[in-house]
Amino acid sequence: MAGGPTRKISAASARAHTRRARQGSSFKLPSEIESSNLLFLYEVPILYSSLCGDAKAIQPPPPKICGSPGGPPVTAPRIKLRDGRNLAYKEHGVSKDVAKFKIIFLHGFDNTRHDAVIASQLSPGMVEELGIYIVSFDRPGYGQSDPHPRRTLKSLALDIEELADKLGLGSKFYVAGFSMGGEMTWSCLKYIPHRLAGVTLLAPVINYWWPGFPSNLSTEAYNLQLPADQWALRVAHYAPWLTYWWNTQKWFPGSAVVNFDPANLSSQDKELFPKILEGKINGVNEERSRQQGEYESIFRDLMIAFGFWEFDPMDLENPFPNNEGSVHLWQGDEDRLVPVTLQRYIAQRLSWIQYHELPGSGHLFPAVGGMCDTIIKAMLIGK
């Protein structure tokens, strides 16, 4: 697909794409395989540190906090949160003082506030016509936002609420998240639904261990991932304290996503990637997402996204029972990072979500020309 019409999948249609299985069953690997895998995870780091003579290799280095001695400089506007942390943000579109629609955007994995695809791809005419204001922010540990070692799904939702209040966005605002930012958007639906005017999830990352998934469906989807990513996710879930070591040691391949393996890109993604990369080179992303350290940025993300969640998204209730807003989930059917089968199942379970499946699209479909206009119109004015 290259910006064509979306295909909305009904719950009944989604059901046809999934296998029937006992609902509520938790995804587990066969016990004998899982036991050997867990033993492997514990024994290999010990052997590694013994042979290398460096036990510190398992421990991540401390972060280089922006504005601290030896740390990156602070150049972005930031708000100070109630716990003392700083959150960096970037404003786009019309002034919030005259805006009719106010959107908070959550960036994806290994990105920053500069990677607000809905802001960079929206047509200027639509921004002016509808009066759209967008604020993107560096999630904790990324860019110029302070790390948060005790970060949870709930704390991120509360950060978003506090950002909205500090910027004066009003009692209700819209939220849109892409990729891993899309996955974190589920926490807004859980913890601050009363603050939401509408929600859009763009190719949201899936946690294969959510108990609401049928075990056979989760297993099949998990096995579609590259072997290196299967292991990286297994480490993040079962042994999160080894996440840094696993992805920086040289004995075994770390996460293919962290290492930008092109095998994770669909045909459409490969066409779009140079366009995205050109924007970064030309200064759209003038700072490194990992500049404060990899552990509190990308690896903390992996541990939160694929760890044991505080809630199951499939237990969520409709935040807009009177149709005063809407929740949209957009997914490419050729996405190699996020299996479409699991998104279809979510659409089946949560019938109040408006599910849009894009034939021929991969993970980077928001960068297709005109696509973001379609996405944002659907959330703001229902077209």
Automatic annotation (TrEMBL):
It comes from Turnera subulata. The lineage of its organism: Eukaryota, Viridiplantae, Streptophyta, Embryophyta, Tracheophyta. This is AB hydrolase-1 domain-containing protein. Residues 103-366 form the AB hydrolase-1 domain. InterPro entries: AB_hydrolase_1, AB_hydrolase_fold. It comes from the Eukaryota. PANTHER family: ALPHA_BETA-HYDROLASES SUPERFAMILY PROTEIN, HYDROLASE, ALPHA/BETA FOLD FAMILY PROTEIN, EXPRESSED-RELATED. Residues 1-26 are annotated as: Disordered.
